[in-house]
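Everyone, study these two lines:
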Amino acid sequence: MKSLISLEEILKRKYFDKSEVVVGKEILYRRQVKWVHVVEVTNLTNLLKGRELILTTGLGWKQDTDIFHSFVTQLIEHKAAGLCIEMGTYMNFIPQSIIALAEKHHFPIILFHEEVPFVEITQDIHSILINKQYELISKLENYSQLLNKNLLEIDNHQEILTFLQEYLDMQVVTIFNDNQVEFYPNRSKPEREELLDKINQSNNKDDASIAKLPVLILGKRFAQLVIVTNNKDITEFELLILDRTATALAQHLLRDLYVEEKKMAQESEWLTSWLEGKYSDEVLHDHISFIDPKLVIQGGVVCVCKQMTIAHSRDIDGTYFKLLFRTVLERYGFYLFSTEIRHHVIFIIGDKRPADNWKERMMAAFNRLNKDSSGRIRMSNVSIGVGKYVHALCDMHKSYETAKETLLLQESLTKENSSYFYDDLHMYRIIALTKKHSNLTEIVNDYLEPVIAYDRKYNGDLLKTLKTYLSCNGSKQETAKKLFIVRQTLYHRIDKLENLLGNDFMSSERRVAIEFMLVAYDYLTTSKNNKLLQYNRV
């Protein structure tokens, strides 16, 4: 099956019985035609897309060899299938330089020594091409229907690949990510090795007897599907069949993964006990070895995910979310166990690589999730808290507690101060602890009330000036630049701050306390706004 027609087939059609092939007779069977153009102009830059058969009388150049040479050069550069020239009207012979140019580039030139009806030639060939396209589409649709019917009945992916092999009657090879290779039909060991060598070598050269397609699931390549022919080019139809099969195989594998994820969710009791710190390191390693003998995990973190309550947002499919999360993070060297506790999705994330860059890898995974998420999952609707990294699996409960704390802290932080990671929250952890055991608002007022009251009364910017001045380490020039004010205005504000806070507010110990209270003030303000926002949503 192919949607194109070769020059060899065209020469057997009506009006070509008395034609003469002056260049390219030995390659006519390889030159595929997808359309026919009648051309009498000499500038073809915007006319050709490739594989066109050109019919001409030579009107555009007549006896001008230079223009004729430019015309043929353009056809070669734009990968035209060939050139047919009607002799006698404007041309009586083909210059030797043109023949040499065509022979150099293996470009067929065909001559009509009698007048022929170009219109009828184009109608004849176009009807063949259109019929071939229709037949190809019909065959492809028939294959798709048969494949979809089989998908409802099959139990394993091998049946899909066997169906492909029997339909195309060619060698099918599937190379999975774990280097497992399957052959349909199966071959002897020497034959398998020879086939794999041929497939690997085709990466470095253009081999039309081999076609490959990745089998993608949630953006990740799970396998590569390959078809191999014996000394013939793979047709467009066979490529389309390969594409449909790769999609069907991905759907089947995704269904298996979905079922596996569901099963893992049902078997999560031991994960809950792990998060509660009930298992020793030895027991956990034994259990993991039972799941996968090759899996080695030396440490990791716990990640707690919570869907944020947003008006008109639909609930997230938990199983699909866990599958997507797992698929992305595994690319960055992690192994995931997942469970759900009180409407939170919990991931125990084991690290299969050295721990020195775990946070960078995890951040890259979160960025990929944010970039790729759409449709069924929107990561902007999910709040994520990652606990501290632990090196002993039996300490994973400590990471779980800090992950929950991180999630709670995020509700009281501005977007620019927020972070997925417990390790990044530094001062906010101390502030939360202070708030828990004392009246944090009263402590903040002890230090900042004069400035807050002044701004409230005069609609001023002293608090903002104080934050900026401290962040610039007392540099007046840098502070004025960041606040977009002149130096004199800044001097006036600093004088006012000294009157309100005391002349020693930039001394070492007092400055540290004020900086801490500024962060605490932001924390309290954001927390208050979040609670008000949640109240309004309810």
